[in-house]
């Protein structure tokens, strides 16, 4: 794509001009946006960039390892992996309000990031994978003028506190354009095509209290669901698909025994930008097969339901 190749060169020049010989720190989330930003900035200024990956313990199965391996070993981008899961889970313990969860995660994220940046001896610049829709959504959301439906923590907060200048090479782009740029930069297709994943991670897919046990159950169910979606060739037709672990236990029967376990809700939507969405129309056989696998393979779930709510009136995430 020649347009994106021109954009890439233009942004590399711009980043070099802005940064000079300064040091840049980039918070890596494991998502497409911050990854593309990091690779682009690394191409521009090399090891003047250090990435920090704050692992909040709310990622999906094996996700953190994959991200760290890719950046450190494949791209040779200096990367600090901070395992802060203990602190995050401790502070989230007993919290059930969605916005409170977001606030706790946002605050801890900033504190952890800040502490690591200090250990690195500081930096003049903070890089973020902010997209054009992030800029708009942080101002107002789809609920109508000036109504905040959900507070997204990926914009704002850090720069003011840390007294750093922002480097935001994706600020003019939409998601699909970031993907084109990522391809242009040689990021693997499996990574580029990944569904968006929210900053607060599995915390907002675990309505009610969050415990390590529940997170573990959710991770297993989610991995099976995504595995079935990939195997059936539907992954790229879907904007986002994920499992939600409901704080509800139901009675079931397995063998000759009674079970009393959690309900897992499956969600999949199509969307252009996440602002509106339609529930994805799976074939019933697919859903039946997936439900059977989840119930058979995951200890702790004995019932699976499918969410047929579109946005609006629902939102994509349950919290
Ligand atoms: P909703 O649930 O508001 O989601 O329809 C729209 C898109 O935003 C993602 N999302 C978040 N992303 N921090 C994020 O970084 C958040 O707190 C958050 N809440 C929702 C969601 O996954 C979807 O892509």
TrEMBL record:
Source organism superkingdom: Bacteria
Keyword Nucleotide-binding attached: yes
Key words of the record: ATP-binding, Glutamine amidotransferase, GMP biosynthesis, Ligase, Nucleotide-binding, Purine biosynthesis
Residue ranges annotated for the GMPS ATP-PPase domain, each copy included: 2-194
Record has Cytoplasm as a keyword: no
GO molecular function: GMP synthase (glutamine-hydrolyzing) activity
EC number(s) from the headed UniProt entry: 6.3.5.2
Catalytic activity: XMP + L-glutamine + ATP + H2O = GMP + L-glutamate + AMP + diphosphate + 2 H(+)
Pathway entry: Purine metabolism; GMP biosynthesis; GMP from XMP (L-Gln route): step 1/1
Binding positions for ATP per the UniProt entry: 29-35
Assembly description: Homodimer.
Biological role stated in the UniProt entry: Catalyzes the synthesis of GMP from XMP.
Protein name: GMP synthase [glutamine-hydrolyzing]
Organism: Devosia neptuniae
Lineage: Bacteria, Pseudomonadati, Pseudomonadota, Alphaproteobacteria, Hyphomicrobiales
Gene from which the chain derives: guaA
């Amino acid at each position: 794509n020649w347009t994106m190749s021109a954009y890439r060169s233009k942004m590399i020049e711009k980043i070099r001009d802005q940064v000079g010989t300064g040091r840049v720190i980039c918070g890596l989330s494991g998502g497409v946006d911050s990854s593309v930003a990091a690779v682009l900035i690394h191409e521009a200024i090399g090891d003047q960039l250090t990435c920090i990956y704050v692992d909040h313990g709310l990622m999906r199965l094996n996700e953190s390892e994959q991200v760290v391996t890719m950046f450190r070993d494949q791209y040779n981008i200096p990367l600090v992996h901070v395992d802060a899961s203990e602190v995050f889970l401790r502070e989230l313990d007993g919290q059930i309000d969605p916005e409170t969860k977001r606030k706790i995660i946002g605050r801890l994220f900033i504190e952890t990031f800040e502490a690591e940046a200090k250990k690195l001896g500081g930096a003049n610049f903070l890089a973020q994978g902010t997209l054009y829709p992030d800029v708009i959504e942080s101002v107002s959301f789809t609920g109508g003028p000036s109504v905040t439906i959900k507070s997204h923590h990926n914009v704002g907060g850090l720069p003011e506190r840390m007294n750093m200048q922002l480097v935001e090479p994706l600020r003019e782009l939409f998601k699909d354009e970031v993907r084109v740029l990522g391809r242009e930069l040689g990021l693997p297709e499996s990574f580029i095509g990944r569904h968006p994943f929210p900053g607060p991670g599995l915390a907002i897919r675990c309505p009610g209290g969050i415990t390590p046990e529940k997170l573990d159950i959710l991770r297993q169910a989610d991995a099976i669901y995504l595995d079935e979606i990939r195997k059936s060739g539907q992954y790229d037709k879907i904007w986002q698909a994920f499992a939600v672990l409901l704080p509800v236990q139901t009675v079931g029967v397995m063998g000759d025994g009674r079970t009393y376990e959690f309900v897992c809700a499956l969600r999949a939507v199509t969307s252009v930008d996440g602002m509106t969405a339609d529930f994805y129309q799976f074939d019933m056989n697919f859903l039946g097969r997936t439900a059977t696998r989840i119930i058979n393979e995951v200890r702790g779930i004995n019932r699976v339901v499918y969410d047929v709510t579109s946005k609006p009136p629902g939102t994509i995430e349950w919290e």
